[in-house]
Amino acid sequence: MPPRFAYWTILIDNGPTAFRARDPEELLPTLNQLKRRNAHVTMKWFSGGKLWDSPDAARESRRREQSDRRPQRDRYLKSDRRPKGDKRPMGDRRRPAFAASRRRKRRDEEPPDRD
After folding, report:
1. What is the model's pLDDT at position 73?
2. For residue range 62-76, what is the model confidence (pLDDT) as tens digits?
3. For 4-13, 32-41, 55-64, 90-99, which range has the lowest pLDDT when averaged over its residues?
4. Reduced to 3 states, what is the DSSP secondary structure of residue 115?
5. Domain annotation covers residue 79
6. Does position 12 have pLDDT exceeding 90, yes or no?
7. Residue 53 counted as domain residue
8. CA-based angle 15:18:20, to the nearest 5?
9. Which of 5, 20, 48, 104 is most deeply buried (CB count within 10 A of its CB)?
10. How far is 24 from 54, CA to CA, in rounded Å?
11. Per-residue b/e over 26-58, b at no fewer than 16 CB within 10 Å?
12. What is the pLDDT of residues 54-113, one digit of tens each?
């Protein structure tokens, strides 16, 4: 069975244990048994190498991180980037001259000796 990277786990005194499950209902009997002997027992969601209170908290945090990392769109859509009406990318406008110079260079070079 492959390892799980997102699961509910039981912590005793803020330390990890081997009790893990995909659904929190599977761990509730074990959690109640452990609470009888230790007052500092909690159940947390483990995802992305961190402990969370719930899967929703983990998703929300990832969503916020992704939105912070996204570049601002207006920075890339400046009007002076291309002449008006020209929808081709910058590289395509230079391509014909580049291809012609490559053909000239190849024609002028001598073919390698094949022995």
Report:
1. 57
2. 888 887 776 655 555
3. 90-99
4. coil
5. no
6. yes
7. yes
8. 105
9. 20
10. 10
11. ebeeeeeebeeeeeebebbbbbeeebbeeeeeb
12. 999 999 998 888 877 766 555 555 555 555 555 655 555 556 666 677 777 777 776 666
Domain residues for 21?
Answer: 6-71
Answer yes or no: is 78 within a domain.
no
Residue 103, SS3 per DSSP: helix
Here the tokens at position 23 are: 């659904």
Give the C-alpha separation, 47 to 64, whole Å: 16
In a domain? residue 91:
no
Q: Which two tokens mark 17? A: 């244990």
Please write down the HEC assignment for all residues of 8-60.
Answer: EEEEECCEEEEEEECCHHHHHHHHHHHHHHCCCEEEEEEECCEEECCHHHHHH
CA 21 to chain CA mean position, Å: 24
Q: How many distinct structural domains can be found in the chain?
A: 1
- Is the Cβ–Cβ distance between 29 and 19 less than 8 Å? no
* Stated pTM of the model: 0.55
